[in-house]
């Protein structure tokens, strides 16, 4: 049941993004359109494969790597301090190298890259904190935080990666023979619940972007 | 499923929920912090506005005092002299023509000198041009001119003082004027001394009179006059401490301590 809700929310976020694209095209959120399309595609394939008993970690390894690069790129575009921007930019090649090394020499292609996934999660949480830090600086006090679409993206990411850190750290354990039934179920519940929060926050950010655009038009 | 493994799964769920709650707590903290910061900024802005308003008010009050002084001088002094000259002019006869002409000439000369003095005062009365120390000197000089007061003024070189209190000088001068006004109105004093002393991180200004004095403890308890309110509120605005030392029959000393750093 939760799987369907999660897929529905995810698909909704893509369609909302598509529907509101004319409002998003002038903002950094425009990059969400291809990304959400890819996400939906991967999730649908993953759903189909899982229901047919096929394991495809390679696809998820590639996709989650793209996911972290994409989010880091978004932070690179949204962070204001030069040093933070450089930090985000430097993280992208570093992360790609780390994943390549992990898949080639450590965990291998046929396993989920939990180490680098956790590394990515950690850095996304750090970027979220940097974004929040910048938001409380006196020079940015004039803009109301809850009216900024990226704040909601950031909130979703923070809750998602904080909440999923344990299940991803124990991914292999949860999928082990002893725990297989309950472990997968728990993994699914937590992961999908967090995904619902994440994609809902994206939807909210898109709607906010449209509302802000309307407000500006009215002011003009 | 063994009980131990069930415990592990429960722990995983609890830990995950805990982390999500941690994230929510972080966000709540962020909002509380932002709200407080905005409130502080608003208060700062209000204080800035209040300071600017007080500054403007002080400038207007200084101008008003100057105009009052000029009006009083013209009415009480020059007006009287010219009236006397007119009277003498009306009393000219064949016999006293020369004597009256000399007297009128003398009176017109005095009126002219007084006018020149007022003009000089007005010309140099721009606070921005002369600064605090010279403004105090002029204030005391005007008091001396009434003949009712003797005054003294002591200060380090004006450029040293003016440099240290730049930005607060107008408000500080208005406080001193207000203190002097209180002395004139209530103390019955005939001597006013002002002493400016420069200290390491502050400047102290002592305004002393030899009037009837009062019990300073009564200031806070009894109804405080507008003048005293003005002194305290303005002093607070420029980070100045007001200390009043007085006793009945022993005059009053008001010490203003302005922190310069």
Description of the molecule:
The complex is a heterodimer of chains A (220) and B (261). In chain A, helix 5 runs antiparallel to helix 6 (114-135) and helix 6 (114-135) packs antiparallel against helix 7. Chain A has one domain (2-219). Chain A has 10 helices and no strands. In chain A, 80% of the residues lie in helices and 0% in strands. Chain A is mainly α and 220 residues long. The N and C termini of chain A lie far apart (46 Å). Chain B has a 5-stranded mixed β-sheet with strand order 1-2-3-5-4, with helices on one face. Chain B is built from 7 helices and 5 strands, in the order αααβααββααββ. The chains are: A mainly alpha (220), B alpha+beta (261). The A-B interface holds A 129, 132, 135-136, 138, 141, 145, 155, 158-159, 162-167, 170, 174, 178-179, 181-183, 186, 190, 194 and B 1-2, 5-6, 8-9, 12-13, 15-17, 19-20, 22-24, 26-27, 30-31, 33-34, 37-38, 41.
N-to-C CA distance of chain B: 72 Å
Can you identify the CATH superfamily of the domain at 132-261 in chain B? Histidine kinase-like ATPase, C-terminal domain
Poorly predicted runs of chain B are: none
Instruction: Tell me the fraction of residues in β-strands of chain B, as a range.
Output: 5-15%
Share of helix among residues of chain A? over 70%
Strand runs of chain B, count:
5
CATH architecture of the domain at 132-261 in chain B: 2-Layer Sandwich
Largest sheet of chain A: none
Rg on CA atoms of chain B, Å: 31 Å
Write the H/E string of chain A, N to C.
HHHHHHHHHH
**Strand pairing plus helix content of chain B: what structural class?**
alpha+beta
Helical run tally of chain B: 7
């Amino acid at each position: 049941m939760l799987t369907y809700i999660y897929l529905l929310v995810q698909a909704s976020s893509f369609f909302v993004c598509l529907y509101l694209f004319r409002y998003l095209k002038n903002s950094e959120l425009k990059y969400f359109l291809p990304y959400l399309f890819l996400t939906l595609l991967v999730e649908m394939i993953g759903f189909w494969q899982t229901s047919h008993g096929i394991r495809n970690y390679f696809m998820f390894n590639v996709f989650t790597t793209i996911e972290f690069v994409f989010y880091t790129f978004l932070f690179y575009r949204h962070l204001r301090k030069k040093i933070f921007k450089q930090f985000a930019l430097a993280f992208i090649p570093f992360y790609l190298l780390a994943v390549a090394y992990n898949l080639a020499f450590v965990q291998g292609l046929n396993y989920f890259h939990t180490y680098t996934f956790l590394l990515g999660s950690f850095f996304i949480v750090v970027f979220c904190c940097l974004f929040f830090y910048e938001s409380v600086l006196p020079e940015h006090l004039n803009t109301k935080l809850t009216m900024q679409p990226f704040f909601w993206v950031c909130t979703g990411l923070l809750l998602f990666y904080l909440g999923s850190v344990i299940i991803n750290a124990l991914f292999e354990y949860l999928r082990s023979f002893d725990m297989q039934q309950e472990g997968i179920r728990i993994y699914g519940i937590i992961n999908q619940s967090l995904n619902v929060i994440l994609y809902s926050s994206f939807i909210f950010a898109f709607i906010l972007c449209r509302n802000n655009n309307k407000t500006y038009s009215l002011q003009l | 499923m063994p009980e131990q493994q069930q415990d592990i799964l429960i722990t995983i769920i609890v830990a995950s929920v805990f982390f999500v709650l941690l994230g929510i707590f972080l966000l709540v903290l962020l909002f509380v912090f932002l709200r407080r910061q905005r409130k502080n900024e608003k208060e700062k802005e209000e204080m800035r506005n209040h300071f600017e308003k007080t500054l403007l008010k002080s400038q207007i009050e200084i101008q008003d005092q100057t105009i009052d002084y000029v009006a009083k001088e013209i009415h009480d002094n020059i007006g009287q002299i010219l009236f006397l000259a007119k009277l003498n002019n009306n009393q000219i006869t064949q016999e006293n023509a020369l004597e009256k002409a000399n007297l009128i000439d003398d009176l017109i000369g005095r009126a002219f000198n007084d006018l020149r003095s007022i003009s000089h005062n007005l010309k140099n009365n721009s606070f921005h041009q002369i600064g605090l120390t010279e403004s105090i000197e002029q204030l005391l000089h005007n008091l001396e001119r009434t003949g009712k007061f003797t005054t003294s003024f002591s200060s380090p070189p004006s450029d040293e003082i003016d440099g240290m209190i730049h930005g607060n000088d107008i408000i500080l001068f208005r406080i001193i004027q207000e203190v002097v006004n209180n002395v004139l109105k209530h103390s019955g004093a005939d001597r006013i001394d002002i002493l400016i002393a420069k200290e390491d991180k502050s400047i102290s200004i002592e305004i002393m009179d030899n009037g009837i004095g009062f019990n300073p403890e009564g200031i806070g308890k009894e109804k405080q006059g507008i003048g005293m309110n003005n002194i305290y509120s303005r002093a607070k605005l420029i980070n100045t401490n007001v200390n009043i030392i007085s006793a009945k029959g022993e005059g009053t000393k008001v010490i203003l301590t302005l922190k310069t750093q």
